[in-house]
Amino acid sequence: MKRSRINDIMAEADDMIRSYGFTLPPWAYWTPEEFKARAGDAKAVIEARNGWDITDYGAGRYDEMGLFLFTLRNGRLADLQRGGGMCYAEKLLISKQDQLSPMHTHVIKAEDIINRGGATLVIELFGSDADGNFDETKGGTVFCDGIRRDYAPGEKISFAPGESVTLMPGDWHAFWGEGGDVLIGEVSTVNDDETDNIFREPIGRFAEIEEDVAPTHLLVSDYKAWLS
């Protein structure tokens, strides 16, 4: 993806987020130079990989297959493993109309996916085999706003604004916006986007970036190169 396109997506996403009454934390708007100057103060943000995240899954077709994310807070895997401390994470996502987030699951993370506003969020679901692998013959069980719902393999469930689903490790899922763009909330256990996204197809989690202009704000995938 071109950096200029990423900058535009950031601006559009910020406008949409604000239109639904959400405001990102102050450090979200730091320039790369400000982030470098305050890297010591922002150590917890950087180590947790909080911040801007825009991906085309390495396919170069963002409008067809991609996702905007902003990680607001993220806990520590060590806390989750010992069963105490900061065991949670929170994100805002934007799924554009007919923009696919491809079929995947998680090994560790359980998550609530919440339609925070906009159009309809559609989630396609499959279950796992005994080893946790994708199984096109398996359904499963999820909880929609706390109400149990059994799903058939490949079933597509629609969520209006205010509605949500709880997905557990082994619930394979893909999603997109239907009828327009959707602002999504994600509340989960500790999030590790580098190792805990298991895709059905061999695709990348992060975009490859063509630096045609300077970044407005850093992506989480920029931290290593810019802030080390």
Automatic annotation (TrEMBL):
Keywords from the UniProt entry: Carbohydrate metabolism, Isomerase, Manganese, Metal-binding
Keyword check for Ribonucleoprotein: no
Cofactor entry: Mn(2+)
Record EC number: 5.3.1.15
Reactions it catalyzes: D-lyxose = D-xylulose
CDD domains from the UniProt entry: cupin_EcSI
Alphabetized InterPro entries for the sequence: D-lyxose_isomer (IPR010864), EcSI_cupin (IPR047581), RmlC-like_jellyroll (IPR014710)
EC top class named in words: isomerase
Sample GO molecular function, one term: metal ion binding
Family recorded in the similarity comment: Belongs to the D-lyxose ketol-isomerase family.
Record-given protein name: D-lyxose ketol-isomerase
Gene source species: Yoonia maritima
Lineage: Bacteria, Pseudomonadati, Pseudomonadota, Alphaproteobacteria, Rhodobacterales
